[in-house]
Amino acid sequence: MPWLRNLVYLLLIVLVLPKLIYSALRHGKYRQGFAEKFLGLVPRTQIDASKRCIWFHAVSVGEVNLLQTLIYEIEQRNPQCHCVISTTTRTGYELAREKYAPRTVFYCPLDFSWAIKSALRRIQPNLLVLVELELWPNLIHFATKQTKVVVVNGRLSENSTRGYRRLGFIIKSTVRQLDHIAVQNNEYYQRFLSIGATTAQLTITGSIKFDGAQADRKNEQTVELQRLAGISATDFVIVAGSTQVEEEEISLQVVQQLIPNIPQLKLVIVPRHPERFDDVARAIEQTGLLTRRRSTIIKPVDPSTKVILVDAVGELGAWWGLADIGFVGGSMGKRGGQNMIEPAAYGVAVCFGPNTINFRDIVEMLLADDAAQVVHDHSEFEQFVLAAIKDPTTANQMGQRAKLLVHAQQGATTRSVDILFSLLD
Asked: Which of 96, 173, 229, 373 could pair with 105 in a Cys bridge, judged by C-beta atoms 3.0 to 4.6 Å apart?
């Protein structure tokens, strides 16, 4: 079977090769880590036999951030554990290098048997931990021959479930090889069962994302960003985070309309994808609003600056701590939404568009507690902003309900680490 999967992967690469070449030349994608991805020539682990090596695989920025509480608790409970981190995307790789130095960080090999076997020989892990969901058949097949494999913070969308079901026994055999699957909630539990997992493999731990959320607005990074951005206590700050073009257009239109009558209004835009930074900068310039790019800010900006474009990776969590209103991106288009836990944890008055299927369970909890609001278009977002400015007490109460909800959901990290140590033992 591995040779057949190799053949299928090669055919797929040939089919998408023109797109890969275009993305590499136009956006710089896929250039880095060629030897790691295609040959499995990842860094060799240099640890003595008394230590235990845990290989964490986190696809991109969101999963990389999620690892923080897991890794810190593991190393606190057992300093003999040596954690290495792989990722798939360039932004995830760069963030992991910055966030988890001096730990080993590398690009995960593609699911070719030769690359996987080479990586496993060089790392020699005692445990492979897949964050949220990465069901690569060759990776799981060869990893389980020498170690145990577990999914943590498991989630499975409706679309993914339908796709996996179509693969039938192929995906079922892969799922059955997993030693354990720690899922976020009962809905995901049932979906994993439907693609072949057994009840013995599954545990509901809750979502680790709640544990990693910062709640203190006076944290060092947020305070420093407030100083650099020239934001005062009298300013009213909108943070539009993990944005796609739809949220950027709506945010800029609303701020442009309201600023003449509400001069204390300020907007911070944090695009989801770094390759769009220049496009977003041009869109802001067309509004005529005084703006600065985060990459150019070394000393505090002029307080009259109305828009900050955060063209940096990994800072969004701290920027949410400055928000009076948080507009969560990826929710007006087809992406399915982005993480709204971080602004909720700060007690921000949170809103997002109607398309949040990727975070449906979290959205349902927030809406049930009247701790967030859905905005369907430009007009509804404008009304949400105006209501928060005119009645800050009500907006603050919404934020506090969100903050309490996040606090009540915490604890998944400890439950997940318990599972990991039980497998290590």
From this structure: 96
What is the pLDDT, as a whole number, of residue 30?
A: 62
Same structural domain, 324 and 345: yes
Residue span of the structural domain in which 244 resides: 220-408
Same domain, residue pair 385 and 237: yes
- Closest by CA to 180, choosing from 137, 138, 136, 127, is 127
Return the CATH number at 257: 3.40.50.2000
The string of DSSP codes covering 354-419 is S--GGGHHHHHHHHHTT--EE--SHHHHHHHHHHHHH-HHHHHHHHHHHHHHHHHT--HHHHHHHH
**Are 84 and 123 contacting, i.e. CB atoms less than 8 angstroms apart?**
yes
- Read off the amino acid at residue 27: H
Q: How confident is the model at residue 157 (pLDDT cuts 50, 70, 90)?
A: confident
- What average pLDDT does this structure show over 89-106? 94
pLDDT digits (tens, 9 = 90+) for 34-71: 899 999 999 998 778 778 999 999 999 889 999 999 99
pTM: 0.80
* Residue among 154, 103, 160, 99 at smallest CA distance from 131: 154
The pair of structure tokens assigned to 378 is: 């430009």
Separation of alpha carbons 368 and 9, rounded Å: 44
Q: Which residue has the tokens 């809103």?
A: 351
Instruction: Judge whether residue 357 has pLDDT over 80.
Output: yes
pLDDT at 358: 83
Same structural domain, 145 and 65: yes
Give the whole-angstrom CA distance, residue 238 versus residue 358.
23
Question: How many Å apart are CA 363 and CA 343, to the nearest integer?
Answer: 13
Helix, strand, coil percent values for the chain (each to nearest 5): 50, 15, 35
| Contact in structure between 396 and 152 (CB atoms under 8 Å) | no
Look at residue 63 in the predicted model and tell me its pLDDT: 93
Q: Provide the domain count of the chain.
A: 2
Question: DSSP string spanning 301-358?
Answer: PPTT--EEE--SSS-HHHHHTT-SEEEESSSSSSS-----HHHHHHT-EEEE-S--GG
DSSP 295: G
Is residue 14 included in any domain, yes or no?
no
Domain match, 231 and 279 both = yes
Distances (CA, A) of 265 to 261, 381, 399: 9, 14, 19
* 190 & 233 share domain: no
Instruction: Please say whether the beta carbons of 384 and 352 come within 8 A.
Output: no
CA 4 to chain centre: 32
pLDDT bin (cut points 50, 70, 90) of residue 134 is confident
